[in-house]
Specification:
The protein has helices at residues 4-27, 52-58, 108-111, 250-263, 280-286, 304-307, 327-335, 363-372, 391-397, 412-416, 435-444, and strands at residues 62-68, 73-77, 87-88, 92-97, 103-107, 116-120, 126-135, 140-144, 166-171, 179-190, 204-207, 219-221, 227-235, 244-249, 269-270, 273-277, 294-299, 315-319, 322-323, 342-349, 352-359, 361-362, 377-379, 384-388, 403-408, 423-427, 430-431, 447-454, 460-467. By secondary structure, the chain is of the alpha+beta class. It has three domains: 52-263, Thrombin, subunit H; 269-368, PDZ domain (Pdz3 Domain, Roll); 375-467, Pdz3 Domain (Roll). Strands 23, 24, 25, 26, 27, 28 and 29 form a seven-stranded antiparallel sheet that branches. The chain has a six-stranded antiparallel barrel with strand order 1-4-5-8-7-6. Strands 9-10-11-14-13-12 form a six-stranded antiparallel β-barrel.
């Protein structure tokens, strides 16, 4: 039998043991999971791409085009500061059969000045081709030969292309018929400034598939052998392939081909806005909480955009549920439609996200709107295309008069830093209401000139320039 003292000692020892165990548990290091970057990577492994099926589908549908009466060429562009030009080859190019009854899609610049066209098929049969229609705004043309039961390419979904996807370029470079090269999509929605037409559509697919003179008008196909683009240009300092080539996306090419086949011309739908890339400066000025989109620098009077409530300074971010990340993407999405079509537009006005529906107008009505909206006039001494303000713009800006700069060309205003959208309210402190008034004032001014005005958000600006 234990004594009372013994019981006390046992109790004390038990308490000390419990305290020590609890303390040890509290102070023991807590296991920490290693950082994620130390975890072994688990990548999905794909088998090597097999291009043979796509090549076998595409080659029989790509033709060799020879022109007479002109020199066929492959369009290319040079770095800034270099001489601009087109590389001429001995009247050759490529084309893509898009239906079994002989319709062929090619580049406009391949057949632009040709007096006659000869098409050689994959099986070496030759035909005389007729031009069904052309569209310089997209650099595309539709030809036809009298033949039936021809191999042809189906249009693919160029929207589904991702940067990094494999593609094949099929054409006839340097008269080397039925040449296939492979590469990846390296960018989408590229604008190159190659086309000169007023309502040009440039939203090229950029690839690193080797393309050279003679490839113009040839096929760009995906791994399934479907047509996702028409090869049209290369970036080069020498005129031969230097790493990048460009193609008109199938989303545009298909619509152009359908219009040319049905109407003999392209039914171009226009929104009626002047758009610019959303630079960091414009994003701050607009107040939009986005870093990608199409910045609206001007809205033409009577246009579809004006009737839909869109204003200069807005940033369009979505059309018909498709994201708009650049000015080129907006141009492409609108170009897929015909006059009379309705499109749903999501845009920002300041920090407010808005939505509207625009009914697109046609080319002729748009040109009329551009001309009637003010008689846009080039002030050559300033290097600017200007037009009077509309009533809505006067009300919005809180002014009674002014000339809106819709385009800045090389000249004093560009050198001074004037941006499109600037409203000139006075020249040498004399108010200007019409281009004619401005022309008269400029004629009498020599040497220094003070220009006063404001930008879309009411920001006042002053420019001092020197007239020669």
């Amino acid at each position: 039998m234990r004594t009372l003292a013994g019981n006390v000692v046992v109790a004390v020892l038990a308490s000390l043991t419990t305290w020590w165990l609890v303390r040890k548990k509290d102070t023991a290091p807590v296991p920490v999971a290693p950082p994620m970057y130390l975890q072994p990577a688990r990548w999905e492994v794909h088998p090597p791409a097999d291009f043979t099926t796509a090549a076998q589908i595409a080659m029989p549908a790509v033709v060799h085009i020879r022109t007479q009466g002109s020199m066929g060429f492959h369009r290319f562009f040079l770095p800034e500061g270099s001489e601009e030009g087109d590389l001429f080859s001995p009247g050759t190019g490529s084309g893509v059969i898009i239906s079994p009854d002989g319709y062929i899609l090619t580049c406009y610049h391949v057949i632009e000045k040709a007096s006659s066209l000869q098409v050689t098929l994959y099986d070496n049969r030759t035909f005389r081709a007729t031009v069904e229609g052309t569209d310089p705004t997209t650099d595309l043309a539709l030809l036809r030969i009298e033949a039936e039961g021809l191999p042809y390419l189906e249009f693919g979904d160029s929207d589904a292309l991702r940067v990094g996807d494999w593609v094949l370029a099929v054409g006839n470079p340097f008269n080397l018929t039925s040449t296939v090269t492979a590469g990846i999509v390296s960018a989408k929605g590229r604008t190159l400034g190659l086309l000169r037409e007023k309502f040009r559509v440039e939203s090229f697919i950029q690839t690193d598939a080797a393309v050279n003179p003679g490839n113009s008008g040839g096929a760009l196909v995906n791994i399934e052998g479907k047509l996702v683009g028409i090869n049209t240009a290369i970036a080069s300092m020498t005129g031969t392939f230097a790493g990048y080539s460009f193609a008109v996306p199938a989303s545009i090419a298909r619509k152009v081909a359908e219009d040319l086949k049905e109407y003999g011309e392209v039914k171009r739908a226009l929104l009626g806005v002047m758009i610019e890339p959303l630079s960091a400066e414009k994003q701050r000025g607009s107040g939009a909480p986005v870093s990608q989109g199409a910045y609206i620098s001007d809205v033409y009077g009577g246009s579809a955009a004006e009737k839909a409530g869109i204003q200069a300074g807005d940033v369009i971010v979505e059309v018909d549920g498709k994201p708009v990340r650049s000015a080129a993407e907006l141009t492409e999405l609108v170009a897929r439609h015909r006059p009379g079509d309705q499109i749903r537009i999501v845009y920002y006005r300041g920090a407010e996200r808005r939505e509207t529906v625009a009914r697109l107008k046609g080319y002729s009505s748009e040109e009329k709107a551009l001309n009637e909206s003010s008689g846009a006039t080039l002030l050559r001494s300033l290097g600017a295309l200007v037009r009077p303000l509309s009533k809505a713009e006067k009300s919005q800006l809180g002014v009674s008069h002014g000339l809106k700069v819709v385009q800045v060309e090389p000249g004093p205003l560009r050198e001074a830093g004037v941006r499109p959208g600037f409203v000139i309210t006075s020249l040498d402190r004399k108010p200007v209401r019409t281009p004619e008034e401005a022309q008269k004032l400029l004629k009498d001014i020599q040497g220094a000139l003070l220009i006063e005005g404001l930008y879309q958000k009411g920001e006042k600006a002053y420019y001092a320039i020197t007239l020669e």
